[in-house]
Amino acid sequence: MNTEHAIWRRLTPDTIAELPESGAVFEVANLVRTVHYIGTGHGNLRQRLATWSQDQAKLSPTPGGYFIRYLPASVEDKALEDRLSSYRAAHGGRLPTGNREQTTTVSKTTSRTAA
User: Fold this and answer.
1) Kind of pairing, strands 9-10 and 67-72?
2) What structural domains and CATH numbers belong to the chain?
3) pLDDT tens readout for residues 78-114
4) Is 38:91 a contact under the CB 8 Å cutoff?
5) Cβ atoms within 10 Å of 100's Cβ, excluding its own
6) How far apart are alpha carbons 14 and 6 in whole angstroms?
């Protein structure tokens, strides 16, 4: 990631308010910087993180809170692909926990007949 934007910042409403309203790839990590999610700003990083951080299903409580860093990107999909590839290379082919949940779709349908 670009070192200027690679500084980890605590994920707070004040931090989000300072983010650019442009495309970017971002990472969310815990206090010891274990990356939990890598995503895109969908053209507006500030709005995306404001919405995303309010979705409690994505963030379970963690001691010390969450931190973010980002890389501005005009072509977000390519930048995301590059960042995920880099992450996988450094982590034995695995994705961050939050990204694993998105790529795994399991559907099981069972039917029972009442007695």
Assistant:
1) antiparallel
2) 9-94 (3.40.1440)
3) 999 999 999 999 999 999 998 987 654 443 444 445 5
4) no
5) 11
6) 18
Within 10 A of 80 (CB to CB), how many other CB atoms are there?
20
How much is the pLDDT for 78?
97
DSSP character string of 50-89: HHHHT-TTT----TT--EEEEEE-SSHHHHHHHHHHHHHH
Question: Tokens 């931190």 map to which residue?
Answer: 67
Identify the residue whose tokens are 């709005």.
47
Question: How far apart are the C-alpha atoms of 58 and 73, rounded to whole Å?
Answer: 23
Contact yes or no for 25/75 (Cβ under 8 A)? no
Rounded Cα distance between 97 and 73, Å, is 23
Which residues have a Cβ under 8 Å from the Cβ of 11 and sit 6 or more positions away? Answer: 28, 49, 53, 65, 66, 67, 68
